[in-house]
């Protein structure tokens, strides 16, 4: 059992390439263009429900920008990190879960917006709702609405299953509808975790020389869910 737990693949590192766009094609293309310095707009706000992929996109965008030799920083608002406007005015900054900023962080982010307007920085911010609905300082809410605003649409179950089937075909096997639905019901529902489990299932099938069925998936999930 312990060996099975060790065999569970970790999710891939977030990248723009492995983000499954669904209804977010325009947003994804914009981030590709921005990462290639193809946009004059340097302020972007994205919002969506939990599990829609906000954190993935923010980290993926930083990964793309770091390749371009830019200074990058990821700020998780819930971790109460210090935001230094002077040090970050020319950096690429992402702020995740902006609604969790405390009072001092809100003031610092407001000042960072103002300094970045005169500098060369890029700011990508995520929240759980549109800027106008945030219960933050009004001057900061105004700044959050300055640039491009996109809603991130979470994948439906049908889209997730199709993405899993496409991934399985790329790995050289067919994933049945029944196994895909069982995986959705009994494992984490974010796509990186689902794809990582599918990779583990494929490897486990090859190692045990057994077909990919619900009983095989159950055997793999049992120690993983207990971990």
UniProtKB/TrEMBL annotation:
One family name in Pfam for this protein: Hda_lid
Hda lid domain location: 157-221
InterPro entries: DnaA_dom, Hda, Hda_lid, P-loop_NTPase, Sigma_54_int_dom_ATP-bd_1
Domain Chromosomal replication initiator protein DnaA ATPAse: 18-150
GO molecular function, one term: DNA replication origin binding
An example Gene Ontology biological process: negative regulation of DNA-templated DNA replication initiation
Coiled-coil region(s): none
GO terms for cellular component: plasma membrane
Protein name per UniProt: Regulatory inactivation of DnaA Hda protein
Organism: Sulfurirhabdus autotrophica
